[in-house]
Amino acid sequence: SSTMSFSEAEVQSARGAWEKIYVDAEDNGTTVLVRMFTEHPDTKSYFTHFKGMDSAEEMKQSEHIKGHGKKVFSAINDMVQHLDNSEAFLGIVNPLGKKHATQLKIDPKNFRIICDIILQLMEEKFGGDCKASFEKVTNEICTHLNNVYKEVGW
Fold it and tell me: What PROSITE patterns does the record tag this protein with (predicted)?
């Protein structure tokens, strides 16, 4: 269904968890992407700029990767601000999903990969409670993105 069921307490704790990692959006966004590209090298094939980069060090210095990391984090930030408003949340998720499905042709499994790496980073930096309070958000994001893919006949 397209409605989300976050209690007020869940919304607050998810936002609290997200704020911790979003404070350093560029650094953390870069870390997440570099980890994705090194642990799942096939994901690099979607990004023409990054194809030739093999070392994590080289990736960390890339303006393209920093820029995209920031973009990913700011998109998630927009979603986090609207956890208590399904319509606004879907207003962000739907166009994003459509673009990734139809124009960029990104395999939707990559959304799960990136979300899992974000959760992993949260746990490393801020502990298990932080991760736990954000898990439902990542599930929600991935579920809705997958629904968009189904709608466009992926």
Answer: GLOBIN
